[in-house]
């Protein structure tokens, strides 16, 4: 019995050894001509971050289609960053392999086919015998000579698909015209090239742009200014984005114009993608959530993506994109992909135009009105004295599908794309042409007389209503400052009225834009229109009611709210001196004195201490920065947006999305996956405190050279232990009026606030005691996190 068992084991070992010899497992990062890749084998980069092999898209794993790709190897979510044969999938995995051919090309072969399914198409390769393919730690697949590790004959970074990784670049060769650009997947389940692309501007402008069908531009980054793109405020020095782990490089010379970004922390997983939705999106992996978190996307509204809903469809975008076929149209076939809404809609009944006597045909096509929309593009103007002539002009052309008249006649021909629901209430309307059978109840002979009567009547009525409404709004909401302190439940129309339809924008903060509003004979207010808030109406009202009861002289006062349908707005008291960043960074003609800065620092601390310790539930602000500190007429600071963290909730994806562009104020625990406590606010307060006392951004370029930067918090932290020399880091005029004791005290507090571990940071209550001289403060160690941030800026 023992002999049988031994023989069986030996036989199994021999079979295993032979199978390994026939089908090596590729545990390394290199592929050679003698060692092809097949089956479930894969290359793995040296640090284990990336893998390469055969895969099926997660959204279409049952399709039977296989691709060669590169993906993140250490995370549980399939995230493919590059695809070789994206438009030529294979269906027989068992007979397929990836190998180095005799001419030195990397090729994908299927046994029964005579030519490769995919090839790198390298020409004039003189080192065919020693060619190898290596997967690098950056996610870049390079082909090179085995003996030459520095010279790539071919690399995947020169042939991007839909993902832009750190170290790869968008570029346009000025000599050859060749571009390195991104092209979206066709579907989440199909990596074939889609209709959206991201590339350097083909017109020659120093910007990158999003294109539909490689022809129509629908978003641009704005021109490069030397440190950022004008249309990407998250990158500008006025934000804290450059203080994060990102660095940027823009090149414009005789050979090329290119843009590249990089990260200074190898452990940070981040990627930019041109999504199937047509948006460019930036993602970061958060271990605590075990998910990718979106922190930047453009265009902000999905409906701003050209053609996202296809022809004859109306786009609406609140939290989720919605494409709705117009009356008389139904969804076009989508080839088993219901998520692909770019296919648009098609007519239920063909137009009669061109199918018989033209005089009769005119009476067989009619129009119906779609109101409350942004008009689609590609309209053509024509002469028409009135709306009747405009309709006739459309009926007389068989290609005309819609018209609009508002003093000028606009006509649309053939497919009509980019019709969007108007969230701003401008109420444009458009008349869509349909076969008469689609509108059986219309009465053409009465159409224009009725319309004329209605227009005259509505004009008279609207003038009267406007006057009455003005008086009604003044009376109904004029008691805000009557002294009763009650919260006002505004109507959306009220807020449109007092903000003049949201025309005077005060700024853009977390989760939305802020507009100035004037309540007649009463007060000036600030109206914040929230974006991307998914709370139900009942929960929103409950949270607003709680926040409205929080009163402190260093917290902005919430006066009222609006909650109707998808609309969520907050009404705050108006701060005449604006935000703190306007006074710190040169946007104001007034320079804040040292004593004012010091009192502002104490006031902010008192407001945060109230939120952290004196409210029934601890409220963590989550976005402390100079833009969120407002100043009243006496320069008393008031913390703004303190209730948004409560309204939004501490969900990782929503909070990090709201904080795009302010990563320089984020505590390390946001990205390391630790629990978020009130000490995260303390870290942000500390980073802001450096800016308050210095009057400049924490990271600024030295005057001696445009490429050299200084990181102010690190300079202070390294200077404190030397004793007595901190004042030399400040502006002479500012340091001259500062109390040496106060200067030393506030610098030490700032350094304690930004310690790497939350437990090492003081509470806001302790900070107040130290700043007011009631408690001593020891010399802090140099925060380790500062060095990581500073190293990322060199």
TrEMBL record:
Span of domain Apple: 353-435
Q: Name one GO molecular function term.
A: protein serine kinase activity
One cellular-component annotation, GO: membrane
The record, for Gene3D superfamilies, names: Bulb-type lectin domain, Phosphorylase Kinase, domain 1, Transferase(Phosphotransferase) domain 1
Family under the similarity heading: Belongs to the protein kinase superfamily. Ser/Thr protein kinase family.
- Membrane topology, as annotated: Single-pass type I membrane protein
- The regions listed as transmembrane in this protein's record are 448-471
The signal peptide here is: 1-27
Q: Where is the Bulb-type lectin domain?
A: 28-156
Q: Chief localization class?
A: membrane
Q: Which compartment or compartments is the protein found in?
A: Membrane
For this entry, list what GO says about its biological process.
Answer: recognition of pollen; response to other organism
Tell me which EC number(s) this protein carries.
2.7.11.1
Q: Which CDD domains match?
A: B_lectin (cd00028), PAN_AP_plant (cd01098), STKc_IRAK (cd14066)
UniProt key word ATP-binding: yes
What SMART domains does this protein map onto? Answer: B_lectin (SM00108), PAN_AP (SM00473), S_TKc (SM00220)
User: What Pfam families would the database entry show?
Assistant: B_lectin (PF01453), PAN_2 (PF08276), Pkinase (PF00069), S_locus_glycop (PF00954)
Location of the Protein kinase domain: 500-774
Protein name per its UniProtKB record: Receptor-like serine/threonine-protein kinase
Database matches in InterPro entries: Bulb-type_lectin_dom, Bulb-type_lectin_dom_sf, Kinase-like_dom_sf, Pan_app, Prot_kinase_dom, Protein_kinase_ATP_BS, S_locus_glycoprot_dom, Ser/Thr_kinase_AS
Organism, as annotated: Oryza punctata (Red rice)
Q: Which UniProt keywords apply?
A: ATP-binding, Disulfide bond, EGF-like domain, Glycoprotein, Kinase, Membrane, Nucleotide-binding, Receptor, Serine/threonine-protein kinase, Signal, Transferase, Transmembrane, Transmembrane helix
Annotated ATP binding lies at 528
Q: Which reaction does it catalyse?
A: L-threonyl-[protein] + ATP = O-phospho-L-threonyl-[protein] + ADP + H(+); L-seryl-[protein] + ATP = O-phospho-L-seryl-[protein] + ADP + H(+)
């Amino acid at each position: 019995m023992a002999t049988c068992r031994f023989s069986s084991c030996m036989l199994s070992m021999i079979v295993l050894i032979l199978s390994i010899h026939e089908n090596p497992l590729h545990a390394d990062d290199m592929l050679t001509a003698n060692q092809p890749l097949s089956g479930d084998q894969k290359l793995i980069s040296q640090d284990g971050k990336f893998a390469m092999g055969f895969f099926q898209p997660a959204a279409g794993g049952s399709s039977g289609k296989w691709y060669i790709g590169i993906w993140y190897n250490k995370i549980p979510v399939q995230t493919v960053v590059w695809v070789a044969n994206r438009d030529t999938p294979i269906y027989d995995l068992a007979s397929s392999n990836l190998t180095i051919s005799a001419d030195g090309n990397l090729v994908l072969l299927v046994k029964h086919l005579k030519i490769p399914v995919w090839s790198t198409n390298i020409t004039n390769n003189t080192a065919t015998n020693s060619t190898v393919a290596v997967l690098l730690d950056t996610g870049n697949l390079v082909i090179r000579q085995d003996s030459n590790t520095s010279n790539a004959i071919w690399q995947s970074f020169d042939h991007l698909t839909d993902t832009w990784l750190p170290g790869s670049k968008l570029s346009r060769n000025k000599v050859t015209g060749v571009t390195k650009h991104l092209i979206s997947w066709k579907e989440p389940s199909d990596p074939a090239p889609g209709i959206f692309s991201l590339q350097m501007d083909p017109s020659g402008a120093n910007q990158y742009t999003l294109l539909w069908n490689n022809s129509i531009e629908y978003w641009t980054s704005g021109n490069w200014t030397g440190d950022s793109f004008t249309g990407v405020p998250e990158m500008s020095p006025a934000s804290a984005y450059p203080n994060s782990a990102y660095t940027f490089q823009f090149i414009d010379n005789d050979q090329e114009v290119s843009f590249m970004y990089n990260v200074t922390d190898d452990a940070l997983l981040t990627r930019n993608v041109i999504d199937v939705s047509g948006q460019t999106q930036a993602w970061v992996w958060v271990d605590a959530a075990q998910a990718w978190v979106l922190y930047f996307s453009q265009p902000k509204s999905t409906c701003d993506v050209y053609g996202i809903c296809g022809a004859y469809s109306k786009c609406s975008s609140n939290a989720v994109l919605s494409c709705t076929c117009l009356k008389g149209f139904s969804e076009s076939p989508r080839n088993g992909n219901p998520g692909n809404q770019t296919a648009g809609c098609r007519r239920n009944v063909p137009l009669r135009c061109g199918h018989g006597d033209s005089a009769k045909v005119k009476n067989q096509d009619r129009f119906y009105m779609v109101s409350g929309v942004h008009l689609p593009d590609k309209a053509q103007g024509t002469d028409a004295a009135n709306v009747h002539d405009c309709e006739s002009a459309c009926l007389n052309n068989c290609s005309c599908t819609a018209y609009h008249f508002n003093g000028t006649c606009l006509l649309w021909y053939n497919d009509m794309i980019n019709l969007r629901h108007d969230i701003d209430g401008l109420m444009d309307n458009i008349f869509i042409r349909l076969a008469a059978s689609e509108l059986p109840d219309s009465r053409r002979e009465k159409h224009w007389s009725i319309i004329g009567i209605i227009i005259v009547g509505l004009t008279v009525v609207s003038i009267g209503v406007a006057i009455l409404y003005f008086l009604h709004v003044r009376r109904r909401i004029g008691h805000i400052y009557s002294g009763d302190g009650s919260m006002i439940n505004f109507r959306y129309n009220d807020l449109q009225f007092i903000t003049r339809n949201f025309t005077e924008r005060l700024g853009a903060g977390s989760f939305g834009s802020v507009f100035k509003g004037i309540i007649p004979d009463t007060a000036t207010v600030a109206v914040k229109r929230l974006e991307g808030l998914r709370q139900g109406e009942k929960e929103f009202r409950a949270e607003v009611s709680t926040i409205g009861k929080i009163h402190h002289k260093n917290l902005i006062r919430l006066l009222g709210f609006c909650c109707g349908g998808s609309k969520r707005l907050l009404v705050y008291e108006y701060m005449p001196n604006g935000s703190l960043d306007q006074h710190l960074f040169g946007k104001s003609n007034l320079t804040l004195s040292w004593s004012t800065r010091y009192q502002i620092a104490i006031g902010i601390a008192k407001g945060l201490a109230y939120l952290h310790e004196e409210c029934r539930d601890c409220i963590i602000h989550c976005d402390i920065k100079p833009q969120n500190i407002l100043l009243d007429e006496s320069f008393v600071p008031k913390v703004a947006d303190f209730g948004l963290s409560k309204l939004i909730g501490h969900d990782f994806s929503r909070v990090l999305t709201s904080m795009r562009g302010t990563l320089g104020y984020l505590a390390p625990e946001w990205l390391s996956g630790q629990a978020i406590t009130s000490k995260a606010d303390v870290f942000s307060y500390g980073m802001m405190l450096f800016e308050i006392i210095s009057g400049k951004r924490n990271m600024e370029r030295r005057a001696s050279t445009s490429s050299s930067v200084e990181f102010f918090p690190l300079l202070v932290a390294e200077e404190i232990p030397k004793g007595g020399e901190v004042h030399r880091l400040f502006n002479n005029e500012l340091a001259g009026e500062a109390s040496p004791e106060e200067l030393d005290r506030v610098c030490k507090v700032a350094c304690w606030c930004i310690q790497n571990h939350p437990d090492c940071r003081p509470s806001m209550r302790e900070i107040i005691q130290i700043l007011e001289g009631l408690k001593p403060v020891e010399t802090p160690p140099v925060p380790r996190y500062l060095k990581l941030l500073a190293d990322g800026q060199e």
